[in-house]
Write a structure and sequence with these properties.
It contains 9 helices and 5 strands. The chain is an alpha/beta fold. Helix 3 runs parallel beside helix 7 and helix 8 crosses helix 9.
């Protein structure tokens, strides 16, 4: 391995550590509480994003299902071809877009507003269309990406993950979700074995 490659690898840890520490400074308790209230009260939750943001949205939908908040990732391509029928009035759509201007998401925002679906947007740009059109905006802070060109979706995905993880942690408390419930829906793998043996 080149010396420069090792330096870049170690530097990636430092960059992302710094980002997570800085994120706390941008934590808006009021906005976060509103987001938790919306997610806790929704019968269905959609998540939507493009590229790396979309992949992390898929992860968030799975996390929500794991605490029995029915959720589905709605791909931007399918959303404008009928998939937004999954969401009904009073449900919630979570958009993720660092710049808040992702053109594929804007028609979906319009659909949500027409249907009475509540919108939570996670973005770095608080003046963007996705931020201005949302019911709640959660600030995404990114210091820089980990590659030397500051171009690949690395630190930004970690920052988005952190926001989603904090929402799930809060929702567990807000909804009174119990580990025994998780044992019922997660019998598979080492986690399922541990949970269900403990239940016995």
């Amino acid at each position: 391995m080149k010396k420069e490659a090792l330096e870049q690898a170690i530097g990636a840890y430092k960059i992302e550590e710094e980002c997570i520490r800085e994120m706390v400074e941008y934590f808006d308790e009021e906005a976060f509480a509103k987001a938790v209230d919306l997610l806790a009260g929704a019968q269905r939750i959609g998540t939507c994003g493009c590229g790396h943001s979309g992949i992390i949205c898929q992860h968030f939908s799975h996390l929500l299902c794991c605490i029995e908040r029915p959720s589905r990732f709605i791909s931007p391509a399918e959303a404008v071809h009928g998939a937004t029928g999954f969401l009904q009035e009073g449900d919630v759509m979570v958009f993720a877009s660092r710049g808040g201007k992702t053109k594929e998401l804007l028609p979906i925002l319009d659909i949500c507003k027409t249907k009475g679906v509540k919108v939570i947007s996670v973005t770095e740009n608080m003046e963007s269309p996705l931020a201005l059109g949302a019911d709640v905006v959660l600030k995404q802070h990114v210091n820089r990406e980990t590659d030397k060109y500051n171009a690949q979706g690395t630190t930004s995905t970690t920052a988005l993950c952190m926001i989603f993880h904090s929402l799930q942690a809060a929702l567990i408390e807000e909804t009174g979700y119990r580990n025994e419930q998780f044992a019922v829906i997660h019998p598979g793998g080492a986690v399922g074995e541990r949970l269900n043996n403990k239940a016995l």
